[in-house]
């Protein structure tokens, strides 16, 4: 029935019987939603034909196909045993994986350096350096903090920016010196010249 006040038509869904108001251009709709439209067998057949591009199979063809597929484990919902799953995991883990490089991801120090690199990128720092450059710099300092003259593994060397990132310093290897965590925290963001390692003979 035409609703003269709101300019809409009332339709009744053929699936659920629910009434709803629609505009003039939708007055010939037979369903209230797409879900109700999919519930009809004619719509199911139409969707299936559209997806597969073939006509609906007859019951005789279905019975014949069912007999052909008897004994097929995959057709019956074949599932791998826990032993088979474990064997696949072991065959693709560690140095057997195609993602394997050289085991660096098992090094806690490398993981720490990766996290620091993410922190520097988040602060939009200029420049960058590799983990190999950082390891070479530590070896140049003999794994020793030039401020307190303590060495690893007694302390853990951390990257200290000679010109802090907060004051426009770059993240290049030339702007980095290895300091222990304590000396790095004491220095904080002070502008202190590069500390040279002094060896006591």
- Beta percentage is 5-15%
Separate helix tally: 7
> Helix-strand pattern, N to C?
EEEHHHHHHEEH
Order of strands in the sheet with most strands: 1-2-3
* Number of DSSP-assigned strands: 5
**Mean of residue pLDDT values:** 80
CA gyration radius, whole angstroms: 35 Å
- The CATH class of one domain: Mainly Alpha
Helix content: 25-40%
Shape: elongated
The protein's oligomeric status is single chain
| Separation of the first and last Cα atoms | 105 Å
3D architecture notes:
The chain is α+β, with helices and mostly antiparallel strands and 201 residues long. It has helices spanning 34-38, 41-52, 59-68, 82-91, 108-122, 131-140, 181-187; strands at residues 2-3, 8-12, 19-22, 157-161, 176-180. Strands 1-2-3 form a three-stranded antiparallel sheet, with no helix packed on it. A two-stranded antiparallel sheet has the order 4-5. Residues 1-5 have low confidence and may be disordered.
Short characterization:
The protein has 201 residues and is an alpha+beta fold. It is built from seven helices and five strands; from the N terminus they run βββααααααββα. Among the domains are: 2-51; 109-187, DNA Binding (I), subunit A (Orthogonal Bundle), CATH 1.10.30.
Features:
single chain; 201 residues; DNA Binding (I), subunit A; two-stranded antiparallel ribbon; 34% helix
């Amino acid at each position: 029935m035409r609703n003269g006040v709101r300019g809409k038509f009332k339709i009744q869904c053929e699936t659920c019987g629910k009434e709803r108001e629609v505009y003039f251009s939708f007055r010939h709709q037979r369903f209230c939603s797409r879900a109700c439209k999919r519930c009809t067998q004619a719509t199911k057949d139409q969707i299936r034909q559209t997806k597969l591009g073939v006509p609906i199979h007859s019951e005789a063809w279905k019975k014949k196909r069912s007999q052909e597929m008897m004994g097929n484990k995959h057709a019956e919902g074949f599932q791998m045993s826990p032993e088979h799953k474990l064997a696949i995991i072991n065959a693709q883990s560690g140095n057997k994986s195609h993602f394997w490089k050289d085991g660096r991801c098992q090094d806690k120090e490398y993981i720490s350096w990766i996290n620091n690199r993410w922190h520097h990128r988040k602060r939009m720092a200029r420049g960058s350096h590799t983990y190999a450059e950082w390891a070479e710099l530590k070896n140049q300092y003999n794994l020793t903090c030039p401020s307190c003259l303590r060495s690893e593994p007694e302390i853990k060397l951390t990257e200290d920016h000679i010109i802090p990132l907060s004051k426009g310093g770059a993240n290049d290897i030339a702007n980095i010196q290895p300091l222990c965590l304590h000396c790095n925290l004491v220095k904080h963001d002070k502008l202190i010249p590069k500390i040279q390692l002094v060896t006591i003979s």
